[in-house]
Amino acid sequence: MDYRLKLIGYPIQHSLSPWIHNKFLERTHLKGTYTLHEISPDASFDENVLTLKKEKVDGFNVTVPYKEEIIPYLNMLDDTAKQMGAVNTVVYREGKWIGYNTDGIGYLRSLESKYPTFFQNKSKRILLIGAGGAARGIYYALDRAGFDCIDIANRTKASAEEIAKLATLSSNTKVVSLKEAEEGIGNYDLIIQTTSVGMKPNVDTSILSFSQVKENAIASDIVYQPLQTKFLKEAEKNGAAIHYGHTMLLYQAQYAFEIWTNQKVPMDDLDLQLQTILE
Ligand code: ATR
């Protein structure tokens, strides 16, 4: 089998996905290619998707701004993609185009690879900051993994409330303001930053202050450019353990590759290799 894999989105010229998936192909000794298929906003999305389908690619990733737009072109969605209303991975299987969303599981895997013991107690208190697509995926994965003490804080409270609707019945999910989250920061065992605040080059503020953070709490930022966000620097300075954003990128790709090829790639030192590229 010669796997033909692609990435669609715009802009994608600087995407790290080809680097990651080519490493996976090397590591698994599978034959194949992972290439970019950029679709400019002026082009016809319809025609581009039809081209991909005609080319009979085996699978593709979908990134911004097409994660929702792709859905009507698919024959089936897995449960997570349905709940997210967004697809980042498509596989061609037995004549059908099937959509998945690997972000949430990717996040969990990345956390588990670095902090396996965190998963031993599902009553750990978690603060999720932000309420965009990534936050939604992470919330859903954490909730379904059994974590039942999650607070969601977002600048716009209504979006956090939308995410809280995904909660299973036994969950103690609460929506809190950013101010309340900051005041109660010492209560949390894991604090996850999913907003785009840390990506803005000229913004030198963290989304909240860590001065009261609990010792041994984990601070996790899904932003990976820069690798060392202000959020992580502040957290580390105040004694928290750190979880970098690029690891989520790697593990959501690992899960996508598994969907395409049925092979779970051993990650070994890939996170350090990617870290070196990003530093
Ligand atoms: P994605 O889907 O990639 O996760 P998004 O939908 O653009 O990204 O979500 C961005 C998140 O960053 C949102 O939670 C947004 O808060 P709002 O819902 O209030 O817009 C948050 N965000 C962006 N800029 C922010 C800022 N300056 N301060 C606080 N939150 C911010």
Automatic annotation (TrEMBL):
MF terms in GO: NADP binding; shikimate 3-dehydrogenase (NADP+) activity
Family: Belongs to the shikimate dehydrogenase family.
Active site, renumbered: 67 (proton acceptor)
Domain Quinate/shikimate 5-dehydrogenase/glutamyl-tRNA reductase: 120-196
PANTHER family: BIFUNCTIONAL 3-DEHYDROQUINATE DEHYDRATASE_SHIKIMATE DEHYDROGENASE, CHLOROPLASTIC (PTHR21089:SF1), SHIKIMATE DEHYDROGENASE (PTHR21089)
A Pfam family annotated for this UniProt entry: SDH_C
Function: Involved in the biosynthesis of the chorismate, which leads to the biosynthesis of aromatic amino acids. Catalyzes the reversible NADPH linked reduction of 3-dehydroshikimate (DHSA) to yield shikimate (SA).
EC number in record: 1.1.1.25
Organism: Oceanobacillus profundus
Gene: aroE
Annotated positions binding shikimate: 15-17, 63, 88, 103, 224, 252
Binding residues for NADP(+): 79, 130-134, 222, 245
Assembly, per entry: Homodimer.
NCBIfam families per UniProt: aroE
Taxonomic placement: Bacteria, Bacillati, Bacillota, Bacilli, Bacillales
SDH C-terminal domain boundaries: 245-266
Enzyme class: oxidoreductase
Name this protein carries in UniProt: Shikimate dehydrogenase (NADP(+))
Entry keywords, A to Z: Amino-acid biosynthesis, Aromatic amino acid biosynthesis, NADP, Oxidoreductase
Pathway: Metabolic intermediate biosynthesis; chorismate biosynthesis; chorismate from D-erythrose 4-phosphate and phosphoenolpyruvate: step 4/7
Annotated ranges, domain Shikimate dehydrogenase substrate binding N-terminal: 7-90
Catalytic activity: shikimate + NADP(+) = 3-dehydroshikimate + NADPH + H(+)
One record GO biological process: amino acid biosynthetic process
GO cellular component: cytosol
